[in-house]
Amino acid sequence: MRVALEINGDDYARDVEPDLTLLSFLRDVLGLTGTKWGCLTGDCGACTVLVDGKPVVSCLQLACQAQGREVTTVEGLETPGGLDEVQAAFVSNGATQCGFCTPGMVMSVEALLRTNPSPNEAEIREALAGNLCRCTGYSKIVDAVLQAAAERRSAVGSPAADVS
Amino acid sequence: MPAVRASELQVVGRRIPKLDAPEKVTGQIAYADDLRMSGLLEGAILRSPHPHARILSIDVSDAERLPGVRAVIHAGNVQQGCFGYGNDNVPLKGDKVRFIGDEVAAVAAVDEEVAKRALELIRVEYEVLPAVFDPFEALEDSSPSIHDELPDVDGNVSMRWDFDHGDVDAVADRAAAIVEGRYSAPQAAPAPIETHVVIASFSPSGHLTVWSPVHMVFMYRKALADVLGLDWRKITVIQPPVGGSFGGKIDIDTHDFIAVMLARHARRPVRLVMSREEEFIGTRTRQPIHFTLRTGADADGNLLFRDAEVVSDNGAYNAWGSHAMLVAMNTITSMYRVPNSRIRCAVVYTNKNYGGSVRGFGNPQATFAVEQQMEELADALGMDPMDLRLRNANQSGDVTPQGMEITSCGLSQCLDIVREQSGWDRRRGKMRDRHRGLGAAAFIHVGGGARIYGSDGCGAIVKVDESGQVTLISGSSELGQGSETALAMIVAEEMGVPIESVHVVNSNTDIKPWDVGVHASRTTFVAGNAARMAAAAARDKILEAAADLLDARAGDLRIREGVVEVAGEPDRQIEFGRAVRRRLLREEGSVVMATAFYDPPTHHQDKDYRGNISAAYGFGAHVAEVEVDPGTGMVRLLNLWTAHDVGRAINPMSCEGQIEGGAAMGVGLALSEELVMFDGQIAAPNFHDYGLPTAVDVPRTVVNLVETIDPLGPFGAKGVGEGGIIPPPAAIANAIADATGVRPREYPMRPWKVKHWIDSGERSHVVAGKEASEHG
Ligand code: FES
Ligand code: FES
What we know:
The structure holds two protein chains of two kinds.
Chain A (H helix, E strand, L loop, with lengths): L1 E6 L2 E6 L6 H8 L18 E4 L2 E4 L12 E3 L12 H8 L9 H14 L5 H7 L11 H18 L8
Parallel strand pairs in A: 1-5
Antiparallel strand pairs in A: 1-2, 3-4, 3-5
Chain B lengths: L20 H5 L15 E7 L5 E7 L1 H5 L3 E6 L21 E2 L5 E7 L2 H10 L1 E6 L6 H4 L18 E9 L2 H5 L4 E9 L11 E6 L5 E4 L5 H12 L6 E4 L15 H13 L3 E4 L2 H7 L6 E9 L5 E13 L8 H11 L5 E10 L13 H19 L3 H8 L18 H11 L2 H4 L8 E11 L11 E7 L5 E5 L8 H13 L6 E4 L17 H28 L6 E4 L2 E4 L2 E7 H9 L7 E7 L18 E12 L6 E11 L6 H20 L5 E2 L2 E2 L4 H4 L10 E6 L21 H13 L10 H10 L3 E6 L4 E2 L1
Parallel strand pairs in B: 1-12, 10-11, 14-15, 18-19, 25-28
Antiparallel strand pairs in B: 1-5, 2-4, 2-6, 3-5, 7-15, 8-13, 8-29, 9-10, 9-12, 13-14, 16-24, 17-18, 17-23, 20-21, 21-22, 24-25, 26-27, 29-30
Helix pairs in contact in B: 9-10, 10-11, 10-19, 14-15, 15-16, 17-19
The structure holds FE2/S2 (inorganic) cluster (FES) (2 copies).
One FE2/S2 (inorganic) cluster sits at the interface of chains A and B.
């Protein structure tokens, strides 16, 4: 069947099998290998992408379900100036070790900050509970999110928010 | 090398982000499964559904006829030899299968779907045999014999690790207190988020290239050659970035051999990707170990002895897991000063997935027993457990009963720090009414290599090219832990160049020099020393060339930010690249390149398990605070304070990352992780049920880095990779005991177990002393 959608701002249309997952569509059909997988059962979050701004585990989503939607993957985050705030904060805080969870983690953070620009630590941990990281113990990821949120707020000039 | 004062350091000691982090946060970095290759076939493995069975026949004819299938292999049509300790394993089983998941046949096909359908068409006839899953049953004469084909195996005991020092029985008579108990650790999994992936490809001339995220790459290459009858000079192994390993990817695994055999049969490149389920079922685990331990002390709290009977349940075959006792033994004999010790250990075969070398390698298990008994003993003596620890703490200059030479040692300092930060003296034993408790545990672990092989060395090459760029070619590789960045920092520091100008090449056996591999928290120490030596030699060549060009004496030169200048005369200077060019671009020119090899001054243990196997030892201490719901047995970890003697923190941010990540794994072991098994079948081989800690399950860990400046470590550094995972199960068990008065006997300390201990009143067993009794 034919699926047409927007990925990272570009239009794509492809003929796909009806049972093809969005994850396979991205990685195997389009070669966008930035999105990783760790389980294919919806449990690890490594395959998280945004569909119309909401985080979804792309291993449990069919490509055809994304028909007509806007998909954002980790490849779509970089700004012309380089890394976006979340990516840059992951780098400077040591929030990535092996890096295998990182693309999915970063996408979950992007989704969180869109709905909650000033998350506190508990909210961050809650929002990331579906993204497993085996390397970091999560503390540095939380630090990165707090920093990225603060930077994004100051970039848009919003009032300082509670980061307690 | 001369000691360096921190104030003189330019790069070492800074919180430098990992060099590969930008590639990782953008998804650009290509892991094994991200590699694209033309003509690549997909492989799949047929695994045994039985825990123990004789293979009567294998019929692959239907599978071979399926369109799209390019190879179907089984023991009857491949050339393969034995591997594993005692040569007890073969890649594809021909006679018997010994656990659910054992490899029986494999296919390569044009895509995954065809490969899976082909597996369904393979018909295997089995004669099911009685199986044994409990290691204590496996020790009985009536037990089925799992490796009856091996003449050296006595029943199901594949190895014994027995150790004696001093006279335990004699000192036991004068002990003021002796505690004893059984402590058990479960089967757990390294569970990296990236599963195992391997790609094998033969060139038309017969050269084999394998892409595999393995750490011990040179031994991997040799094993491929030995087991598959290949010429190892015609094998290149490339290590793609590793999506987490924790020991799970340390050495060669059965599927690596299978991928190569498939590629050989199909005459096409083949990829084998483990599904998450296969990762749990068919790749190496952390072996369950059962300790029956006694510890005794005199009335002043001087430890007198430890006496241990240990059963290591290593599963169906002997991979690295069979050697976890190497480390567990160190902890029993050498955690604190213990003048007498006795260990009787049997490594036992059972019909289960088998043990590998998972982070901590036997040490979380042993520490769970040893450090609970420190608190039990303190209670029996009426002493504070921290005082008991400090009184017996290892100190610089000690030589332990196994001959481990303790040089730098920050154990007492680590204990003091966590004692203070946790409010131990005010709070321990005083929060039971609120169901809260504090518990501590310390660790000792190799931190300066571990001589388990002829060489414990690592080679390094440092090259400065005509642009001034510095390249370190290291034998050692990066697993995500940050060693690549630490090595680059060491080189930058030694040469006086900015970190940005150092590149690291470390992932191709054709290019890099020998290294044993990443394990035993040895990379920063061993590969770091090698890198530092090569960097110093390359720097000296630059200085020599610069002296010539600046018409100065080498001794008058100094290097700053990649520029050589005559001291005190900043206008007489030359940058690295120009010095190299002046040396290169002329008749009879030469390149600037230096090699080094560092093998720590250590010794193999002798047959009595004595010998200084590591050039340095790492120490640390944790205190955990828990709250236990007495109604449900639910344990909530509220706080974890940690202090680690890292020698010197080359990169404090990376050290913290290792400790925080390790501690989170330790918390997982303590509270949730277990491969629950019924009759040899892993009940739920998936992330949903396995119990990996999530961001809401681990509290923010407090990390203190204690710098003792090791005399042999590069800039004083010691290994830090494994320490974090070791104390949490013991510290949390002790905290549960403090909160409830019951004594945990096994982990994970799941709510129903804790509830059971509370309901049944499980207590410490004090078997000697003035008031031999059960203590709460
Ligand atoms: S791969 Fe999709 S959630 Fe794990
Ligand atoms: S960085 Fe390795 S899994 Fe998160």
